Amino acid sequence: MAKQQNSVFMIGWEYPPHNSGGLGIACEGLTQALSQDDTKVHFSLPYESGHGVDHMNIHYCVHDNWRHKDCDCKDKSGKCVNVNCEPPFFAYSQEVYIPEQPELVSSNSGYSFDLNKLRKLSSNQLEKQVTEYAQIVGNVGLNNNDFEVIHAHDWMSFPAGQQLKKETGKPLITHVHSTEYDRSGLSSGNQYIEHIEYTGMHQADHVIAVSHYTKKLLEQRYGVDPKKISVVHNGISELAHPVDVGKHHFAPSRPVIAFMGRLTIQKGVSYFLDLAKEVLKEIPEALFVVAGNGDMYHELLLKTADGGLSASVVFSGFVRDEQRRKLLNRADVFVMPSISEPFGLVALEAAQRHTPVIVSKNAGVSEVLTNAISLDFWDIKKMASAIVDLVTDVDKSNTQVAGQLEDLSKQTWKSSAQKVKEIYKNAFLGYKK
Amino acid sequence: MANVCLYFELHQPYRLADVSVFDIGLDKEYFTRQEELNRKIFQKVAHKSYIPMLTLLLKLVRENKDFYFSFSATGVFLDQASEYAPKVVTLLQKLVKTGQVEVLSETYHHSLASLYSAKEFEYQVKEHQKLVKQLFDIKPTIFRNTELIYSNEIGQLVEDLGFQACLTEAVDRYLGGRKRTQVFVGKTKNKLPLLLKHAQLSDDIAFRFSEKAWASYPLTADTYMNWLGSYQNSEVINLFMDFETFGEHQWEDTGIFKFFEVFIKQSIKQKRNKFLTPFMVIQEQKTFKDSPEYDIPEPISWADVDRDLTAWVDNSLQRDSLDKMYQLEQKVLSQKNKDLILDWRKLQTSDHFYYMCTKWAADGDVHAYFSPYESPYEAYRRFSIVLADLKERMIET
């Protein structure tokens, strides 16, 4: 290669602390590991915000159309200088969930660019946003043309990746963290987004899937050539805050079973309520905590009350930072009954905090967390009895926790980054041929 | 000369603190952490309504020996008044001392216990009686249940507790064209006398008074007296309403205080209306042998357009919260922890379930007006967490 240091232009969507889910966290873990492995990373984001990041060059790719027309944060030229006052893709949603209580939100502004909300835009609005992002990324990429490969994360970034590939002639790698098929709970989702995903993957030189589960889905559902797809599992970052297992956090007198994730059809949270009902027959004092928000929130509250589960199933709202750690430290069992989960990073976090995990068979994370219990999300009887076992049998729980930690030790971002670098190299060489 | 029986209800709930899932089992207080809000609301309403209206009533009672009215105040109201606005209690005491003002009995916690537990209902009524005795040195003889909720079954409970009469709503589907201005008797062993609210004439003041789209806006005392004047001497018009009508639901600038003052003064001066308390109504009639029966198989109330329980017991959020709370009764009462028992009782205040109401249209607006939460779902979410904590406190470790 011409340059000593490898360089990549990544097209991102969200980045901590402004992340609504695993995508931002995965981007953080991967870029940090790549940069430590001597790779220069350009990273584009569709909003402006200081991240205090020094391991890569962040490019804030904000289109003028997204800026405020009437606001108090304009510079002398009349241009809005603070896009934060109107996050570009966030403000469209009228949905109101549990208000984020001040203590639930980190010291930062707290909003996120929720992909799930973006999905609900009308197609022409969506198309406009996506095209605008592609334009800006195209320009920025041309001005920073020292990279060898383009790496686009999930559908929102695919058109920008294609645009940049067209303008620079460099190979494009599309990284699939989740598909529309997953998000709609294995039924038909937004046709426009599926189309973007299809085109993005077919025009890419190579595709990265976060699991074998996803790879299979990309083959079967999107007709992508399996030879073109590599699986790179997500890693897990080292803990910034120590593990603090114990009942002292809250609800010290009863078993706590936790769900954490978006309250959407994809996450199978409705099955969590069915599980609660089943487990309560055996362990009447068990407490089930649903952490997160999403468009099924009201429906889930009603289902809880309908099922006579009030005061046994409680909803915490969206949790982050301290409360997130507290819940994972405290939980006696963590359940992820997703209908379709490309990976499921939160299961690794739970394992990291010494909590036995039960995951859906339709979850990529089960490929790496082999010591976790993996069951069909719809098999309430089996799932419930697995929960009861873990709650009542300390030895069993301890053994599983130890096994899970063993699994985690292999799952580093460093090893993920090595695989990604290999893919860069092949794409670059393949392209030169 | 029409007979007018005025009754005002005084109530303010203890609003719940925002107990988080992560507070469960950590001895977090449910109500005192919300003390500032409870105090602020109470003092605001005291300033706008309780104090000016009670002052006006005291003046009217002192100036007019023929002016009589009745009120009841929940235990949780009187507790908050003693703490946040003692002047309210003093004014009430002065009024009762005149002998022209009757105090009615109700549940201490403004609860729905009459629907869920006869035992708990009786306890709360007796606790309320103790408080009334302590503050006003009287023993009420007439009962009004929370939100005028009434059924045959409740009537029997009230009768068994020794009350001489009970107030409730005149609901057309049970009235069947009979006059609401007569004393009815309940379908109880001893035919408990019942006074039925005249909804139209009560709501003309309580709800429509300041409604500009209303054909009779602005309502003058004269017009109102003419309406009352169309009733015969033998009839009793029961005007039952929330005390906060004066100054809070209808602000001072609507002219509500002036209206009321003129209405009372002119009624007496022109001998157009005779004012009675519920007890006086019962006493005057002496016998109820021939009184018509008010047969109420399903509970009624004075709330919303439906005049039923749907403001508190309708959707599953409300039903399951209430079921779960009352299922804890035996376990709670077997605890030695007095604070825990009191917390359980404070959670029974009907307002908590009113906030969870998901009915929409006109009634929804009324519910939203009174609710400290941005949605009924949030009211449920928080209540469920508090119940989970209450359960946790009773787990023996």
Structural account:
The complex is a heterodimer of chains A (433) and B (397). By secondary structure, chain A is an alpha/beta fold. Chain A is built from 14 helices and 13 strands. In chain A, α1 crosses α14. The radius of gyration of chain A is 22 Å and the shape is globular. Chain B has helices spanning 35-63, 75-84, 86-97, 113-116, 118-136, 152-160, 172-175, 199-206, 221-229, 256-269, 278-285, 316-327, 329-333, 338-347, 351-354, 361-370, 376-393, and strands spanning 2-10, 69-73, 101-103, 142-144, 165-169, 184-186, 193-197, 236-242, 273-276, 293-294. Chain B has 397 residues and is α/β, with parallel strands linked by helices. Chain B has 17 helices and ten strands. Helix content of chain B is 47%, strand content 12%. The chains are: A alpha/beta (433), B alpha/beta (397). At the A-B interface, β9, α9, β10 and α10 of A face α12 and α17 of B.
List the helices and strands and how they pair.
The complex is a heterodimer of chains A (433) and B (397).
Chain A: E1 6-11, H1 22-36, E2 39-45, E3 57-60, H2 115-118, H3 123-143, E4 149-153, H4 154-168, E5 172-176, H5 180-183, H6 191-203, E6 206-209, H7 212-222, E7 229-231, E8 256-260, H8 269-282, E9 287-291, H9 297-306, E10 313-317, H10 321-330, E11 333-336, H11 345-352, E12 357-360, E13 373-375, H12 380-392, H13 394-410, H14 413-432
Helix pairs in contact in A: 1-14, 3-4, 4-6, 8-12
Chain B: E1 2-10, H1 35-63, E2 69-73, H2 75-84, H3 86-97, E3 101-103, H4 113-116, H5 118-136, E4 142-144, H6 152-160, E5 165-169, H7 172-175, E6 184-186, E7 193-197, H8 199-206, H9 221-229, E8 236-242, H10 256-269, E9 273-276, H11 278-285, E10 293-294, H12 316-327, H13 329-333, H14 338-347, H15 351-354, H16 361-370, H17 376-393
Parallel strand pairs in B: 1-2, 1-8, 1-9, 2-3, 4-5, 5-7, 6-10
Antiparallel strand pairs in B: 6-7
Helix pairs in contact in B: 1-2, 1-3, 1-10, 2-3, 9-10, 12-17
